[in-house]
Write a structure and sequence with these properties.
155 residues; mainly alpha; three-stranded antiparallel β-sheet; 6 helices; 70% helix; transmembrane; transmembrane helix; membrane; DUF1453 domain-containing protein
């Protein structure tokens, strides 16, 4: 996959995530993480394609770990921007404008690191967009579920 396709795919997934995040949705105790699993699998495949072109040096691995940790951090912070409440016995969730802004900033930081470290790991940000989004979404999901569990039983 070339870098343009990766960026377009990443932007499309980001748009889908932001739209889903800001909609009011019921919160279930054990929803199937279909979107998360699909993103994770596609992200691993995307990264594998990248690593066929760029050798996995210590610098590349360190930068990958750093950017995924940043994604996890953004996910944790975003989780606190999600409103959780009980209505008619059901738990609900809805992201705020801040949630959307944090998604966009996190995505920008991830791609920005690509430019910053271009000489060390050319294209790493573009080659790991979907994995970054999966990690960030997964961490946010864990924190939101944790917050919701403190509010009582799920529907």
């Amino acid at each position: 996959m070339n870098s343009t396709v990766n960026v377009v795919a990443g932007l499309a997934v980001l748009a889908l995530l932001v739209v889903r995040q800001i909609r009011k949705r019921p919160l279930r105790e054990d929803p199937r993480p279909v979107v998360l699993v699909v993103l994770l699998v596609l992200g691993i495949l995307q990264l594998g394609t990248y690593l066929k072109v760029v050798p996995a040096s210590a610098a590349v691995i360190a930068l990958l770990v750093a950017t995924l940790l940043l994604g996890a951090g953004f996910g944790a912070v975003r989780a606190w921007s999600v409103r959780i409440w009980r209505e008619d016995g059901q738990l609900w969730r809805q992201g705020s404008r801040l949630t959307a802004v944090l998604w966009l900033v996190g995505f920008g930081v991830h791609i920005g690191l690509d430019a910053l470290f271009d000489g060390v790991a050319h294209g790493l940000g573009v080659g790991s967009i979907l994995l970054y989004l999966a990690v960030s979404l997964g961490v946010q999901r864990l924190f939101v579920q944790s917050r919701a569990s403190r509010l009582g039983s799920f529907a």
